[in-house]
């Protein structure tokens, strides 16, 4: 089981053919206080890079993009009622979506933790 | 020696810039200035201000004095540019008003204070928005009669202490300020610093705006922050506080296309001026007062949790009837709030409307403002 990252600050953890997706600690720090989360319908099929969810802070709305192609098989139904969880545990309990992955090769193409840290440090 | 508009790398800074940076505030460009948007977080800062006292650096705003031979002459010159009654403004009192274009559109909003000291007869103190100040001062100068001078005060800093515990702080540091009534002002000392203090602000809370020489700004800032009720607050919370208070933000809720009547600022036009006119756009404003404006600024309460941001279309009866001009999350309300303009027929509190957020119509209701009760000292 490993975790990969996108340049849009999503993280992805792959278990078998199911990818759990959330936003990174860096992303939630940039957003500030999260006050609203909009999640997709279960069963929706997405391609890599499309808008998957919306996260809003006090100041602004931001899109969460699909880090890879797949079908939405589960959403974190606790988030809409407790969006502040995204600030508290963004890379754990406050995951957004689970995707059944279409092409695991897309996962291998994402940044690993070392690359992502270097990417964030360069920003 | 510092100035309220030091230029570093093409970005203006206030005399308190170093204080913000030392406290690790998140800095953003705002109206050409490098300003703190937040320190510990907008939500915490907003709620702190509503419960305690928040300290804001608003030194980027434009401060100036209008100076003429006597109050009647100076007041008449300003009344030719704004719709408020300045002639009858008592010494030591302050008013909110708008600089108007010839068609009645709003060039900027501003605070006008008549000094309390008889030695200052003929002077008026103005505070205008940072983003508008260059244009405002040029506009005012171009319209002034020869006997009146506009003297800008870029060497002055301005801080706002806002919240229900602001008065307790001032009772210790500036008893004469604590004694001020709402919308009153005086020259006095705060923590030993010579200051012009008004009992006003832009958060809906009781509070004070304190103007001091830029060389005294850091000493004042530190003295206020040494009080246990006081924390520094960034522009992010200032925006959510003023939105909850139902107050307009220039360039968003009011601009050159909106009149004070459309903006629901009729309360700021005193009876004598409504009747006599004599200000730019008076014909339009008197017509809108008599017939009602075609559109009006209203408060909007979205159902559900999704915030409706500036620009969101307001829909009723299957067509667009208005647009959100400020919207977001109200930390004290605990949910989304917005304000915007709607056709007059849809302005009544209780009217059901839809706000189109990301293509989806979300139900909302027209509500009276403020969204949270104000705490002004009455």
From TrEMBL, chain A:
Question: Which stretches make up the Lipoyl-binding domain?
Answer: 18-100
Q: Which Gene3D superfamilies match?
A: 2.40.50.100
Question: Is the keyword Transport assigned to this protein?
Answer: no
Give the cofactor note text.
Binds 1 lipoyl cofactor covalently.
- Please provide the Gene Ontology terms (biological process) for this protein: glycine decarboxylation via glycine cleavage system; protein lipoylation
Ordered alphabetically, the record's keywords are: Lipoyl
Domain of life assignment? Bacteria
Q: Where, per the database record, does this protein carry N6-lipoyllysine?
A: 59
Cytoplasm listed as a keyword = no
Gene Ontology cellular component terms for the protein in this record: cytosol; glycine cleavage complex
PROSITE patterns linked: BIOTINYL_LIPOYL
* Cofactor(s) the protein requires to work: (R)-lipoate
Cite the Pfam families for this sequence. Answer: GCV_H
Q: Which SUPFAM superfamilies match?
A: Single hybrid motif (SSF51230)
Fetch the CDD domains from UniProt: GCS_H
User: What does the function comment of this entry state?
Assistant: The glycine cleavage system catalyzes the degradation of glycine. The H protein shuttles the methylamine group of glycine from the P protein to the T protein.
Do you know which HAMAP family this protein is assigned to?
A: GcvH
What PANTHER family does the database record attribute to this sequence? GLYCINE CLEAVAGE SYSTEM H PROTEIN, GLYCINE CLEAVAGE SYSTEM H PROTEIN-RELATED
Which family does the UniProt entry place this protein in? Answer: Belongs to the GcvH family.
Instruction: Output this protein's name.
Output: Glycine cleavage system H protein
- Top-level taxonomy: Bacteria, Pseudomonadati, Pseudomonadota, Alphaproteobacteria, Hyphomicrobiales
From TrEMBL, chain B:
Would you say which domain of life the source belongs to? Bacteria
Reaction(s) catalyzed by this protein?
A: N(6)-[(R)-S(8)-aminomethyldihydrolipoyl]-L-lysyl-[protein] + (6S)-5,6,7,8-tetrahydrofolate = N(6)-[(R)-dihydrolipoyl]-L-lysyl-[protein] + (6R)-5,10-methylene-5,6,7,8-tetrahydrofolate + NH4(+)
Keywords for this protein: Aminotransferase, Methyltransferase, Transferase
EC nos: 2.1.2.10
An individual GO BP term = methylation
Q: Which organism is it from?
A: Segnochrobactrum spirostomi
Pfam entry (one) = GCV_T_C
| Family affiliation | Belongs to the GcvT family.
Residue ranges of every copy of the Aminomethyltransferase C-terminal domain listed in the record: 295-372
Entry GO CC: glycine cleavage complex
* Domain GCVT N-terminal, residue spans: 19-271
Q: What class of enzyme is it?
A: transferase
Q: Which residues bind substrate?
A: 209
Q: Which PANTHER family match?
A: AMINOMETHYLTRANSFERASE, AMINOMETHYLTRANSFERASE, MITOCHONDRIAL
Keyword Cytoplasm part of the UniProt annotation: no
Please name the GO terms that the record assigns under molecular function: aminomethyltransferase activity; methyltransferase activity; transaminase activity
Q: What is this protein called?
A: aminomethyltransferase
Task: Output the Gene3D superfamilies linked to this UniProt entry.
Answer: Aminomethyltransferase beta-barrel domains, Aminomethyltransferase fragment, Probable tRNA modification gtpase trme, domain 1
């Amino acid at each position: 089981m490993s975790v990969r990252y996108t340049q849009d600050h999503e993280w992805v953890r792959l278990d078998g053919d199911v990818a759990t997706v959330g936003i990174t600690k860096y992303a939630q720090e940039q957003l500030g206080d999260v006050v609203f989360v909009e999640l997709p319908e279960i069963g929706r099929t997405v391609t890599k890079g499309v808008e998957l969810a919306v996260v809003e802070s006090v100041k602004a709305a931001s899109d969460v993009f699909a880090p890879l192609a797949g079908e939405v098989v589960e959403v974190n139904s606790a988030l809409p009622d407790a969006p502040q969880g995204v600030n508290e545990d963004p890379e754990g309990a406050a995951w957004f979506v689970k995707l059944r992955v279409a092409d695991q090769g897309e996962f291998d193409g994402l940044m690993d933790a070392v690359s992502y840290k270097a990417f964030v440090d360069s920003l | 020696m510092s100035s309220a508009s030091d230029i570093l790398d093409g970005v203006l800074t206030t005399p308190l810039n170093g204080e913000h940076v030392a406290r690790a505030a998140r800095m953003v460009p705002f109206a050409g200035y490098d300003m703190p948007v937040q320190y510990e977080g907008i939500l915490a800062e907003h709620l702190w201000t509503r419960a305690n006292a928040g300290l804001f650096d608003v030194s980027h705003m434009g401060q100036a004095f209008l100076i003429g031979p006597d109050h009647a002459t100076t007041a008449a010159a300003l009344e030719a540019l704004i719709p408020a009654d300045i002639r009858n403004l008592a010494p030591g009192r302050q008013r909110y008003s708008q600089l108007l274009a010839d068609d009645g559109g709003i060039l900027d909003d501003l605070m006008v204070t008549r000094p309390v000291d008889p030695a200052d007869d003929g002077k008026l103190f103005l505070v205008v928005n940072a983003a508008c100040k260059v244009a405002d001062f040029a506009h005012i100068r171009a319209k002034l009669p020869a006997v009146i001078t506009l003297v800008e005060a870029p060497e002055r800093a301005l801080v706002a202490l806002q919240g229900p515990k602001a008065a307790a702080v001032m009772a210790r540091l500036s008893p004469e300020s604590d004694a001020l009534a709402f919308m009153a002002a005086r020259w006095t000392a705060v923590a030993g610093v010579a200051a012009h203090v008004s009992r006003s602000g832009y958060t809906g809370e009781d509070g004070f705006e304190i103007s001091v020489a830029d060389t005294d700004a850091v000493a004042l800032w530190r003295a206020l922050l040494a009080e246990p009720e006081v924390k520094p607050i960034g522009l992010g919370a200032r925006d959510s506080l003023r939105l909850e208070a139902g107050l307009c933000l220039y360039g968003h809720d009011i601009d050159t296309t909106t009149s004070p009547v459309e903006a629901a600022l009729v309360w700021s036009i005193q009876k004598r001026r409504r009747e006599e006119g004599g200000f730019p756009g008076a014909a339009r404003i008197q017509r809108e007062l008599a017939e009602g404006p075609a559109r009006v600024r209203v408060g909007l309460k979205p159902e559900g949790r999704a915030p409706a941001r500036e620009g969101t279309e307001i829909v009723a009866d299957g067509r667009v009837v208005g647009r959100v001009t400020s919207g977001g999350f109200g930390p004290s309300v605990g949910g989304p709030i917005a304000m915007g303009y709607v056709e007059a027929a849809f302005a009544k509190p209780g009217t059901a409307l839809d706000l189109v957020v990301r293509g989806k119509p979300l139900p909302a209701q027209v509500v009276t403002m403020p969204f949270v009760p104000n705490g002004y000292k009455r």
